[in-house]
Amino acid sequence: MLTSAINIKKRLTLKRLWRHRELFFWILALVMLYRADLHTDFTLCIPSHLGFENCPGCGLGHSITAAMHGDFELSWSYHYLGIVALGILLFHILKLFRNLITELKNTENYGQ
């Protein structure tokens, strides 16, 4: 009886985490961008690998990385929307985190 209750609780916890997977994805993405090396030419941009020179998003990842390290001038030189994109991502992460906290508070008081 006790093990089935524990299994049910684990499943509910996993479902709750799965519902908030976007929050964990964006946090992981920003951590990876923060740890990225600005001194390499490595890019995940598919159009760049296909030979296109002027992709509208090229340099955005490097720009966000530079902005997170506080080098706003370098960030601007990589892509002028990097600082704005970082602000939008941080705002979205805070909104998702607030939703998670609200859900945890609501399930904590369930049945009282």
What does this structure look like?
Keywords: Membrane, Transmembrane, Transmembrane helix. By secondary structure, the protein is mostly helical. The chain has a domain at 81-111. It is 71% helix and 0% strand. The protein is built from 6 helices and no strands. It is elongated, with a radius of gyration of 20 Å. The model has no long low-confidence stretch (mean pLDDT 83).
Quote the beta fraction. under 5%
Shape: elongated
* CA-atom Rg in angstroms: 20 Å
Q: Largest sheet, if any?
A: none
Keywords: Membrane, Transmembrane, Transmembrane helix
Pfam family, one: DUF2752
Transmembrane segments: 78-97
Topology:
Elements lengths: L1 H18 L1 H15 L10 H4 L10 H9 L3 H7 L3 H27 L4
Helix pairs in contact: 2-4, 2-6, 4-5, 4-6
InterPro entries: DUF2752
Keywords: Membrane, Transmembrane, Transmembrane helix
